[in-house]
Amino acid sequence: MSGFATARQKMVDGQVRPSDVTDLRIIDAMLTVPREAFVPENLRALAYLDLDLDVSDGGPVKRFLIKPAVIAKMLQAAEIGSADKVLVAGCATGYAAALVAMLAGQVIATETDPGHAAKAGEILAGLGLGNVTFRPAEAAAGDPADAPYDVIVLDGSTEITPEGLYQQLREGGRLVGVFGISKPPRAMIVTHSHGDFGHRALFDAVAPVLPGLERRPAFVF
């Protein structure tokens, strides 16, 4: 077993399984997708640590891969089916999109930085994951042209209520992400049912805020 394969196994055994992730499809995806491929060369030794990894690589906007256990627990809560159409909002270099691609039928992934989106497309093509389409858009905007979605995954946190994304959920659809609106911040699941949106806290979590989902500055007299 190679060094990265060993590290991948240790990540799953030491971070993901102890976080009550029992969905074998998610476990298999995390054992299969090479997380080191989605980070800059100088960070590959850190790829499987319990960290939010900065993959900006000198870019103007900070972008991260969020902690493995956090994304795994959110994906489990989303209950993604093999025929589902999923939006991954703010995909950075595409790690979460790759995991989702192994669970869903169709994936739309948005990213504001064209360099990151291009890199993500190259990596996923190399992995043979052809069911992902990348779109240039802010996380808050989503991709209305392909809506509605069965599931929306925020690949990071939001400090505002992402109303525009709620409107892109199919009836019965689910949105998962880290919400920094409350204190402490929590991973939440939002469900669309009978024209209304229900919110349920999943677990306490911290993740970097996605560009466009930052808290708006308060007006000061």
Task: Characterise this structure.
The chain has 221 residues and is α/β, with parallel strands linked by helices. It has one domain: Rossmann fold. It is built from six helices and nine strands; from the N terminus they run H-H-E-E-H-E-H-E-H-E-E-H-E-E-E. It has a seven-stranded mixed β-sheet with strand order 5-4-3-6-7-8-9, covered by helices on one side. A two-stranded antiparallel ribbon has the order 1-2. Helix 5 links the parallel strand 4 and strand 5. Helix 1 runs antiparallel to helix 2 and helix 1 crosses helix 3. The longest helix is centred in the first third of the chain and has 14 residues. It is globular and about 50 Å long.
| CATH fold assignment | Rossmann fold
Decide which structural class fits the backbone: alpha/beta
Mean pLDDT, to the nearest integer, reads 94
Elements, N to C (H/E) = HHEEHEHEHEEHEEE
What is the number of helices? 6
CATH superfamily (homologous) name: Vaccinia Virus protein VP39
Using the CA coordinates, give the radius of gyration: 16 Å
Low-confidence stretches: none
- The dominant shape is globular
Beta-strand content bin = 25-35%
Please give the number of β-strands.
Answer: 9
Task: Give the structure's gist in a few sentences.
The protein is of the alpha/beta class and 221 residues long.
List keywords for this structure.
single chain; 221 residues; alpha/beta; Rossmann fold; 7-stranded mixed β-sheet; two-stranded antiparallel ribbon; 6 helices; 9 strands; 26% helix
